[in-house]
Amino acid sequence: MKYAMKLDRLTKDFGSFRLDEVSLAVPGGTILGLIGENGAGKSTAIKCLLGILHPDGGSVELLEGEGLGGVGYVPDECPFSDQLKVEEVGKSCAGMFPGWENELFAHYLEKFDLPQGKKVKELSRGMKMKLSIAAALSHRPRLLVLDEATSGLDPVVRDEILDEFLSFLSDEDHAILISSHITSDLEKICDYVAYLHKGKLTISGAKDELLGRYAKLSCSKTDLARIDPSLIVGKREGDYGCQALVNDRTAFRQAYPNLPLDMPTLEDLMIFTTRGDRT
Fold first, then answer.
1. What are the residues whose beta carbons fall under 8 Å from the beta carbon of 60, sequence distance 6 or more?
2. I want to staple 126 with a disulfide (CB 3.0 to 4.6 A). Which of 54, 157, 199, 248 is the partner?
3. Burial class (CB in 10 A: 0-12, 13-18, 19+), 79
C-alpha cells in the first residue's frame, strides 16, 4: 500500500503543551480526518508535517520522499494579501510553485464563480476559502492538507467544497488530510479518523470500523449502575435518564442483550472520550 503521508511517533514539546508520539498514515486514494478540541494539537501536527515547525522527536515522510512540492495546503484563514485582486493571486502563486498551471487556476475561478476583478478583502469567507482551495489545486498536488478549511462556512458552501475534495480523490494517487471541528463533514467524506486529545492520539482507525465498534447507550440510572465499567468510555447522567459510550458493541450485546444501542457519531466519540463522566 502506498502512503501519501506518514507521521511516526511525532513529538513537539512547548513546555506547557506536548504533542506526544503521534503516529498517523494516509494511504493513497483516501481521506484522513483529524479531530479534537481546541488546543488538542491538530494544527501543531500539521505544521510539523509541513516543516513550519521542527519536531523534537519522531519522523515525517511525505509522498514517499517526494516532499513538499507535491503538497497543496489550505489554512483556516486565506493566506493572500487583502490588496491583491483575485486574478493577481495566480500570478503571485506562479512564482512559488514550479508546477503551477494558469489555465487550471482560471478553470477553478470559473467553477467556483469567483469574481476576478475583486480584491481579496472584498470576498466573503466562503469565497476566500474557495480561492485558497483553487490555488492549492492549481499546481496539481498529490496530497491536500486542510486545516479547518470548512470552519465558519454555511452548509451550502461546505457541501460544494466537500464535493470538490471527493472529485480530487478520483485519482487514486491523491490523498487528503483534513482537520475540522465539524465532525458531520468528516462523517460524509472521510475513510479514516484520528482523534487527538491533549496532544495524544486517543482513537484512530477506519471511520466505518470505529463507528461500528463503538455504540451509544441510552438507559436508566439503575441499568447504568449494573453495567461492567470496563465497557463504558464515558457517561452522562441526568434527571430523566443516562447516556454512555460503549467501547465494544459486540461484547456489550452479549452481556446485556436487552439494552438498546444506537450508532454513535464522531461527535459522540469526541465528547464522551474527552469529558468522561458527567452529571
1. 5, 6, 7, 8, 10, 48, 49, 51
2. 157
3. middle
What does the block give as the cell for 207?
471511520
Q: Which amino acid is at 60?
A: V
Closest among 217, 277, 213 to 245, alpha carbons compared: 217
- Rounded to the nearest 10 degrees, the angle between the axes of helix 86-94 and helix 102-111 is 150
CA separation for the pair 240, 63 (Å, rounded): 52
Q: What is the pLDDT of residues 116-139, one digit of tens each?
A: 899 999 999 889 999 999 999 999
Biggest CA-to-CA distance, the chain: 67
Instruction: Look up residue 71 and give its three cell numbers.
Output: 503538497
Summarize pLDDT for 141-171 with one digit per residue, the tens: 999 999 988 777 788 888 888 888 999 998 8
Q: Three-state SS across 169-181?
A: CCCCCCEEEEECC
| Beta carbons of 232 and 251 less than 8 angstroms apart | no
DSSP 156: H
Tell me the residue type at 158: R
Looking at beta carbons, which pairs linking 241-247 to residues 24 or more positions away fall under 8 Å? Answer: 242/217, 242/218, 243/216, 243/217, 243/218, 244/216, 244/217, 244/219, 244/272, 245/214, 245/215, 245/216, 245/217, 245/269, 245/272, 245/273, 246/214, 246/215, 246/216, 246/217, 247/213, 247/214
Q: Which residue has the cell 470538490?
A: 164
Half-sphere exposure of 142 (CA within 13 A, CB side): 18
